[in-house]
Structure formats: structure tokens, C-alpha cells
Design a protein that fits this description.
This protein has five helices and two strands, in the order αααααββ. The chain has a two-stranded antiparallel ribbon. The termini are far apart.
Length: 124
């Protein structure tokens, strides 16, 4: 069979063991189901919003790889998430170094200061 016509790997990635009529029909059903899902607006939200699609573990790995490598062309959300990830990792490392537990830390409490037309809201 010519190399361009080999479909075993593609079918295998879809959980279809062998290239036969029933396997190709199952592949067609799966592709049709994916096509119909793509028309669903809710299913498209993760693609239209955010910078990644996948599991949280994948996102964490990507944030670690991007740390310190972002430029002006990257979104503000990506910069914020990278900084937040770095901060959380630093806190976890420091807690571990000191032998502390996160539950020992007191939660933030909001405080407001009324300055006439302005109100300052800060957290301690």
C-alpha cells in the first residue's frame, strides 16, 4: 500500500485497532461527533478564551516552561498566570523549607478606607 494511504496510526489514535470497514465506519462516526460538538458554542468557549486547552497538569508544565520567557506580544492574562504560578511555587517552597503547613497561614481579610470620593480596598 502506498505510504500516503496508510491510516493505521490515525485509526490507532482513535482507539480503532485495525483498518477494516467497521473501523473506518467507527472513525467516520467519531469525526461526525467531533464536528457536531464543534458547532456547540459551549464547547468552543475554551478555544476562544484563554491560551491553553487541556488538563491542569499540562497548564502547570507550560507555565513553568514559559517562566521568564514571555515578551510584549504575549497576552496580559498569560503574564499574570505565569507570575501567579511563580508566586505559588515560591510560597510552597518556603513553607516546605520552614516545615510549615499552608493551613497555619491566616486568610486575607479585606480592609477599606473611605477617603471621600475614593475608597481604598486592600488586603492584609
Amino acid at each position: 500500500m502506498p505510504r500516503a494511504m496508510r491510516v493505521g496510526r490515525l485509526l490507532g489514535e482513535q482507539g480503532i485497532g485495525q483498518d477494516h470497514a467497521a473501523g473506518r465506519q467507527e472513525f467516520a462516526r467519531q469525526m461526525e461527533r467531533h464536528r457536531l460538538q464543534a458547532l456547540d458554542e459551549e464547547a468552543l468557549k475554551p478555544l476562544r478564551r484563554g491560551w491553553h486547552l487541556g488538563r491542569e497538569q499540562f497548564k502547570e508544565q507550560m507555565l513553568e516552561l514559559m517562566e521568564g520567557k514571555l515578551g510584549e506580544s504575549h497576552s496580559g492574562e498569560l503574564h499574570r498566570e505565569t507570575a501567579e504560578h511563580r508566586t505559588n511555587r515560591t510560597i510552597a517552597e518556603e513553607l516546605a523549607r520552614r516545615g510549615w503547613q499552608e493551613s497555619w497561614l491566616r486568610p486575607r481579610q479585606p480592609w477599606t478606607l473611605d477617603l471621600g470620593p475614593w475608597t481604598l480596598d486592600f488586603r492584609l
